[in-house]
Amino acid sequence: SKTNALYLTCEKGHTEIVSLLVQDGRISPNILHKSGYTALMVASLKGFHETSIEILKHKEIDVNMSQSKGY
């Protein structure tokens, strides 16, 4: 469980920064944060629709990942 820039920017809804990080591609969008959520999950849960759409553009996104508790 790690915190990374992609997770933090998704958590805050900073779509423009998420876009830059997605284009860069060096940070995996599939890392589970200590909360048990991925960057996509937290953006979606917080209602940041544009941010969620932006992270879906990441070449390594796994939309089938589950929360660390299995749901």
At a glance:
With 71 residues, the chain is mainly alpha-helical.
What's the arrangement of secondary structure elements?
Layout: H1 5-12, H2 15-24, H3 39-45, H4 49-55
Helix pairs in contact: 1-2, 1-3, 2-4, 3-4
Please, could you describe this protein's structure?
By secondary structure, the chain is mainly alpha-helical. Helix content is 45%, strand content 0%. The chain has four helices and no strands. The chain starts with a helix and ends in a 16-residue tail after the last helix.
Radius of gyration: 11 Å
Helix content: 40-55%
The total count of helices amounts to: 4
Quote the average pLDDT.
Answer: 92
List unreliable stretches of 5+ residues: none
Q: Biggest sheet: strands, sense, closure?
A: none
Distance between the termini: 17 Å
Taken from the alpha-carbon principal axes, the silhouette is: globular
What is the number of E strands?
0
Query: What are the secondary-structure elements, in order, as H or E?
Result: HHHH
**Which class of secondary structure composition applies to the elements?**
mainly alpha
Bin the strand percentage: under 5%
Features of the shown structure:
71 residues, mainly alpha, 4 helices, globular
